[in-house]
C-alpha cells in the first residue's frame, strides 16, 4: 500500500471539492484548479476529508495512487495558500525588474530579455531577488525553470540566475603552470 496514497487530505474551511467523471475541481479563496481523474483511482469526499483509493491492485493503479493523492493535496494547498519560488540574479551589472505582466532581465546579453508572465502567475522583484507566485505548483515551477534557463549559473564565477536555496558547485580556473 502506498504510504502517501493512503493518507486522507484535510479540506480547510472555504474550500469546495467536486468530483466529476473527467476531473476533480477544487474551489477556494484564491480561485479554482482542476485535477484529471485516472480510471484506476477512485476519489471520494467524506466528512471534510478527501480519500484516494485504488480500484484494483494492478501495477498501474499502484503507480498512480500516491501521485493522484499528491496532485489533489497540491490543488487544495494552491487554492488556499498558493505556491512561490524564489530566484536570485548573481553577477556584476545583472538586474531584474517587473514591468506590468512581464519580467525584464539584464543578464550580460547585448539586449535586455523580456519574459511575459502567463495567466495566474505573479512576479515580484526586490533587488536581485525575483519571487514567482501562483496557485498551480506545476506552473510556478515551470515558469521559474524557464526564467533560470535564460542565463543558468556557471561554475567558475557563479554568475547567472539560480534558485535561492540552490548550491552552485564551483570549479577551479586554469592552473597556469609553466611547460
Automatic annotation (TrEMBL):
Keyword match RNA-binding: yes
Lineage top rank: taxon: Bacteria
Swiss-Prot/TrEMBL keywords: Ribonucleoprotein, Ribosomal protein, RNA-binding, rRNA-binding
Domain Large ribosomal subunit protein uL6 alpha-beta, residue spans: 11-82, 90-163
Gene Ontology annotations of biological process type: cytoplasmic translation
Record GO terms (molecular function): rRNA binding; structural constituent of ribosome
Gene3D superfamilies per record: Ribosomal protein L6, alpha-beta domain
Cellular compartments per GO CC: cytosolic large ribosomal subunit
rRNA-binding keyword on record: yes
HAMAP family listed in its UniProt record: Ribosomal_uL6_B
Known role: This protein binds to the 23S rRNA, and is important in its secondary structure. It is located near the subunit interface in the base of the L7/L12 stalk, and near the tRNA binding site of the peptidyltransferase center.
Record-stated family: Belongs to the universal ribosomal protein uL6 family.
Subunit structure comment from the entry: Part of the 50S ribosomal subunit.
NCBIfam families reported in the protein's UniProt record: L6_bact
Protein name per its UniProtKB record: Large ribosomal subunit protein uL6
Source organism per UniProt: Desulfocurvibacter africanus subsp. africanus str. Walvis Bay
Highest classification ranks of the organism: Bacteria, Pseudomonadati, Thermodesulfobacteriota, Desulfovibrionia, Desulfovibrionales
